[in-house]
Amino acid sequence: MSRLLKVALIHNSKPSAKAQHLPADYYSECDSPKTVQAIAKALAASGYTVFPIEANRHLPQRLKENPVDLAFNIAEGFQGEAREARVPALLELLEIPYTGSGVLSLSLALDKARSKQLFRCAGVPTPNFQLFHRADDPLDKKLHFPLIVKPNREGSAKGIWASSVVRHDSEITNGAASSSRSHETALRIQIQRVLELYDQEVLVEEFIDGTELTVGILGPDRLLPVLEIDFSECAPSGEFFYSWRMKEYQGNKEMHLTPRFWCPARLSESVTHAVGAVALKAAKTVGFRDISRVDIRLSSDGIPFVLEVNPLPGLDPKESNFPIMSQAAGISYEALLKQMVQMALERAPKSPSSIPLSKESDFPSPLKAPQRRGLPAAGAKDLGEAPGVPAVARRGIRRGNPKEEDLGR
Ligand SMILES: Nc1ncnc2c1ncn2[C@@H]1O[C@H](COP(=O)(O)OP(=O)(O)O)[C@@H](O)[C@H]1O
Ligand SMILES: [Mg+2]
Predict the structure, then answer these.
(1) How far is 351 from 281, CA to CA, in rounded Å?
(2) What per-residue confidence (pLDDT) applies to 191?
(3) How far apart, in whole angstroms, are the C-alpha atoms of residue 160 and residue 205?
(4) If residue 11 lies in a helix (H) or strand (E), which one and from where to where?
(5) What is the CATH number of the domain that holds 46?
(6) Which residue ranges have their beta carbon within 6 Å of ligand 1?
(7) Do 90 and 170 share a domain, yes or no?
(8) Residue 263 Cα to ligand 1 middle (Å)
(9) Domain limits for position 29
(10) Which of the listed residues 29, 30, 143, 150 should we mutate to test ligand 1's pocket, taking the one with most ligand atoms within 8 A of CB?
(11) Which ligand is located closest to the Cα atom of residue 109?
(12) What is the pLDDT of residue 10?
C-alpha cells in the first residue's frame, strides 16, 4: 500500500532573490528549495510518490487536478490572523488526511499572548508580559526590566533583534536628553518600531537571562533529548540570544554567529525531567499532533520559563532543531518523516466521505446586490498578487521597508 501512496508536500517556498520592497525577514518563515527537496527525497525513500505543491491560492485547484492520499504539510502561510491554520483548514474541507497539528492548535500557538494566558491557567511558568496595541498604552508597573519586545504573531525570530531587549539603563540614542524615565521611552520606541513594521499587537515580556533550551515532542508524548543552544561564542557579533540575525545567519563564522548545540543539554537528570514535564504540559495546553517543539529559557534559579509552543516546527534535516533532537534520540530523518505519515494515516477516516462533493450545476444562481451609487461593484477590481509577492505585503508592511542592515540590530 505505502508504495502507491501519493503525498502532496504542501509548502511555502522562500524565493531565491530577496525582493527590494519587502523587509529582509519577510520570507524567513518559508522553506528553502533545499529543505523542500530534502523532505521530498526522504519521503520518496520511504516509498511514497511525492508532489511538492506551493501553498498559494491555486492550491485547491492543484489538489483537484492531482488527487492525493495524504498531505505532508509544512506551509507556514502568509495572510490572516491564523495563517498557519489555513492549509489544514482547507485540507479538512477537502477531506484530505494531513500530517502535523490541526487548525485550533496552530491558531492558538501563533498567538503568543493567548498561549501564555493558557500556560498561566495550566500552571506552566512563562515570563510576565503585557500586550501593547499602541506604543503609548500605560506600562504595567509590575513588569521588571530588562524587557524584550516582539511581534505577537510571528516566528523564526522575525522582528526580534539585539535591540529588542530594553534594559533599565537603556538610554535613547537619538539625541533626546536622557532622564530617569529613558528606559521607558526606549521601550516605547521599540514597541512603535514593531507596530509599524508588523502591523499587529506587540508582546513585551520580561527577559529571562539564562540557558536557551528547546524540547522536541514526538506525538503523543515522547520527549526527545533536550537541545541547549549556547551563544557564548557569539559575543563579538553583538547578538546574545536567538535573534533574527542569529537564526538567519546561523553558522556564519565571519559574523561570529556560531551558536553551539548540545543535545542532550548539559543539565542534571532532575532538571532535564522538570524541563521535559513543563514542555509536555505546555504543548498539551495549546495542543499538537505528531510533532511539537517548545522553546524555553531556564532561569539562573532553575525555573523553566516557556516562551512558546511550535506545533509546526521546521524540518530542515541539518538546520532545524527538531531533526537534530530526533537524530539524538536515534531516529533517522527518513524514519521521522515516515512516522509522521503513519500517524496521519492512522487518524484518517477509514471510509470515504458520505457527503458528496457538489457539482458546479448544484450552485444556486447568485443573488445580485443592488449597486450603490459612487461605489465600484464588489469584485470589480482584482486585488490579486504580483508573482511571488503575497497579497499581505500591501497590508502587513506600513511605513518604511527596512533593509537588512536595519533589521540587524
Ligand atoms: N522572554 C524572553 N527571555 C529571554 N529570551 C527571549 C525571551 N523571548 C524571546 N527570547 C529570545 O528570542 C528567541 C525567539 O523568541 P520566540 O518567542 O521563541 O519567538 P519566535 O516565534 O520568533 O521563535 C528565543 O528563542 C530567545 O532566544
Ligand atoms: Mg521560538
Answers:
(1) 34
(2) 98
(3) 12
(4) strand 6-11
(5) 3.40.50.20
(6) 127, 148, 150, 154-157, 160, 205, 207-208, 212, 241-242, 295, 297, 307-308
(7) no
(8) 19
(9) 2-99
(10) 150
(11) 1
(12) 98
Q: What is the pTM of this model?
A: 0.88
Q: How far, in Å, CA of 324 to CA of 224, rounded?
A: 10
Q: 302: CA distance to ligand 1 center in Å?
A: 18
Show the low-confidence residues of the chain (pLDDT under 70): 1-3, 170-181, 351-409
Distance 102 CA to ligand 1 centre (A): 24
Beta strands in 231-356 (DSSP E): 260-262, 291-299, 304-310
- The CATH number of the domain holding residue 184 is 3.30.1490
Count up the domains in the chain and report the number: 2
Q: What is the pLDDT of residue 400?
A: 44
CA atoms 26, 31, 34, 36: torsion sign: negative
Can you read off the three cell numbers belonging to residue 31? 522553506
Q: Which residues pair with 150 in a beta bridge?
A: 203
Protein residue whose Cα sits closest to atom 2 of ligand 1: 207
The radius of gyration of the chain's CA atoms, rounded to the nearest angstrom, is 23
What are the pLDDT digits (tens) for 4-54? Answer: 899 999 999 998 887 778 889 999 999 999 999 999 999 999 999 999 999
On whether residue 66 sits in a domain, the answer given is yes
Q: Which atom of ligand 1 is nearest to the CA of 210?
A: 4
For the CA of 212, the nearest atom of ligand 1: 27
E strands in 89-237? 129-132, 147-151, 165-166, 202-206, 210-218, 222-223, 227-230
Question: Which residue among 295, 298, 321 is best mutated to probe the pocket of ligand 1, counting the most ligand atoms within 8 A of its Cβ?
Answer: 295
Q: Please report the pLDDT score of residue 168 as a whole number.
A: 85
Cα–Cα dist 196/259, whole Å: 30
